[in-house]
Amino acid sequence: xxxxxxxxxxxxxxxxxxxxxxxxxxxxxxxxxxxxxxxxxxxxxxxxxxxxxxxxxxxxxxxxxxxxxxxxxxxxxxxxxxxxxxxxxxxxxxxxxxxxxxx
Length: 103
Known about the structure:
By secondary structure, the chain is mainly β. The chain has one helix at residues 86-99; strands at residues 8-16, 19-27, 31-36, 41-45, 49-59, 62-73, 78-82. A hairpin with a 2-residue loop joins β1 and β2. It comes from Falsibacillus pallidus.
């Protein structure tokens, strides 16, 4: 996905206007990269990430299980990813952010 070596990667869906796009998410030391099945790519620089928030499933409007992450950029862009091992993803992205001294 990128010249940098992958720190963590796996299958992920991107929520886009109420539709899911299947693809792969890859974390490197400098970027979070999503590539869908049509080979369209979204690259978010680690330095550009403003915040990570849990995306929870809901039942009758009540948040239940964490099913993904919302990544907000410093420009205000919102990216929603549904994936397994959400806590692991959050931990790895947070570590990468700390290494570039964002947190």
